[in-house]
């Protein structure tokens, strides 16, 4: 393994120097598009050593563009990309015109062409992506997201209970200093496990379970391996070097496969999770929401599958279920960690938001889907879309109703984001003080 990696680095570096494409220096000029070179923010050396990742270049391009410039061209060896700055344009691409933008930014190479990893929604391309995307979209309408609210509430309450136990066990019997990222990750792990598999992972009570460890392993990718794989895809394919932790991937694949088998045979009671919706879709039993029930967002985002011969296979269902751990775990955790940090640093905003949240809290400490969707100030604090937005709002509402959050003695203000895993991350050791109200 180490020999293979060293071979990749040495051979790759030589090839890269020899074969460095010369036509990319101003590739976008032929289309009248300004090209920005992101290397001042993250050099090739910094990318290849894993010191920085492509998000540093994204941030740099964002700063270089003037207020009137909506996008620019960039080269991410070997891909030619368009970087969108304008939010309205991004929204249009992501919602109404999604069907035309079938190929996502590729972040890493998958060495085995037969691997089920190739079926992940964020990896699929062209017509195949369209087919899968339009097939699973009915599982993400407002009506279906509403189904998840029950688990956001039950997991949220359990999570708060555990945090209160920790605060009560402290010397003050009221406050506890917590590491934010691992704590919010416990909530998001349990939410995804319930939402996808209907599986009670119990991470908020048992953060060191095998399940929780596997989620973290799946979501953590080695930055310099990713960078190398993008520069030298053929070598990675030739040597079969995996970027994803395949042991963790197989762990989830097996859970989904067992769940799918049991549900297809009708052995289990019906549940409100993604797997159930996929089973209903496969059997042709998933009731789609009536046109009148779809929000204007959903009508805009609707995309028709163009090939009626498309078959939803077990492999495709399996891959999409595992995708949620890739796409929905660390994204939401990082977002929540930053939100709690900002609320700790801005007590006036926290107070105002708590006041709003407390107007809609139910007697049993839960929140209703419709009420949480109508919070005006929350929408200013918490941006996002669809499932992730509702999940994040629920987490924030549960915490603010029960705790005051403040900077801990170790909290650096301003916080410094950490580059890695293709997102800007809050530092692992970011601590905040939670005090029971
Ligand atoms: C705050 C949290 C989140 C953020 C900021 C976020 C952001 C994004 C972005 C920017 C993309 C587009 C990537 C690209 O075009 O290359 C994406 C795709 C995706 N996300 Fe999220 N996401 C979040 C949470 C979630 C959650 C909770 C789930 C599911 C449980 C999810 C599932 C997906 C999937 C399946 C895709 C691929 C869609 C496709 O290719 O058609 N995300 N996300």
UniProtKB/TrEMBL annotation:
Query: What top-level branch of life does the organism fall under?
Result: Eukaryota
Q: What subcellular locations does the record give? A: Endoplasmic reticulum membrane; Microsome membrane
Q: What is its main location?
A: endoplasmic reticulum
Q: Which InterPro entries match?
A: Cyt_P450, Cyt_P450_E_grp-I, Cyt_P450_sf, Insect_CytP450_Detox
One of this protein's Pfam families, by short name?
A: p450
**What's the family?**
Belongs to the cytochrome P450 family.
Please state what the protein is called: Cytochrome P450 9e2
Q: Which organism is it from?
A: Orchesella dallaii
């Amino acid at each position: 393994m180490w020999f293979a990696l060293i071979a990749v680095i040495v051979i790759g570096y030589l090839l890269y120097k020899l074969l460095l494409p010369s036509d990319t220096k101003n590739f976008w000029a032929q289309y009248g598009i300004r090209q920005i070179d992101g290397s001042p923010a993250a050099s090739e050396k910094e990318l290849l050593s894993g010191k920085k990742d492509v998000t540093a270049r994204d941030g740099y391009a964002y700063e270089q563009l003037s207020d009137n410039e909506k996008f620019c061209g960039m080269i991410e060896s070997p891909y030619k990309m368009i970087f969108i700055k304008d939010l309205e344009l991004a929204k249009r691409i992501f919602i109404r015109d999604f069907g035309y933008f079938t190929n996502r930014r590729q972040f890493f190479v998958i060495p085995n062409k037969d691997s089920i990893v190739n079926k992940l929604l964020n990896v699929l391309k062209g017509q195949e992506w369209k087919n899968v995307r339009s097939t699973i979209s009915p599982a993400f309408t407002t009506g279906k997201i509403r189904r998840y609210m029950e688990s956001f509430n039950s997991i949220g309450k359990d999570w708060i209970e555990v945090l209160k136990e920790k605060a009560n066990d402290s010397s003050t019997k009221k406050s506890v200093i917590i590491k934010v990222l691992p704590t919010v990750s416990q909530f998001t792990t349990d939410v995804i496990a319930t939402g996808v598999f209907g599986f009670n992972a119990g991470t908020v009570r048992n953060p060191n379970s095998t399940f929780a460890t596997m989620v973290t392993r799946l979501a953590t990718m080695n930055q310099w391996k990713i960078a190398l794989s993008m520069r030298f895809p053929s070598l990675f394919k030739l040597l079969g070097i995996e970027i994803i932790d395949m042991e963790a991937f197989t762990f989830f694949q097996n859970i989904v496969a067992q769940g799918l088998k049991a549900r297809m045979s009708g052995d289990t009671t019906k549940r409100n999770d993604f797997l159930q919706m996929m089973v209903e879709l496969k059997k042709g039993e998933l009731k789609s929401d009536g046109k009148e029930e779809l929000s204007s967002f959903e009508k805009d985002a609707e995309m028709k599958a163009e090939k009626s011969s498309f078959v939803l296979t077990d492999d495709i269902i399996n891959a999409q279920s595992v995708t949620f751990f890739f796409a929905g775990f660390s994204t939401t955790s990082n977002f929540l960690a930053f939100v709690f940090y900002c609320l700790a640093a801005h007590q006036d905003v926290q107070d105002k938001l708590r006041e709003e949240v407390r107007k809609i809290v139910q007697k049993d400490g839960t929140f209703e889907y419709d009420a949480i969707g109508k919070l005006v100030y929350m929408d200013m604090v918490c941006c996002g879309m669809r499932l992730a937005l509702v999940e994040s709002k629920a987490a924030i509402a549960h915490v603010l109703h029960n705790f005051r959050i403040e900077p801990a003695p170790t909290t650096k203000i301003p916080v410094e984001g950490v580059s890695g895993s293709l997102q800007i991350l809050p530092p692992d050791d970011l601590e905040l003080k939670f005090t029971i109200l």
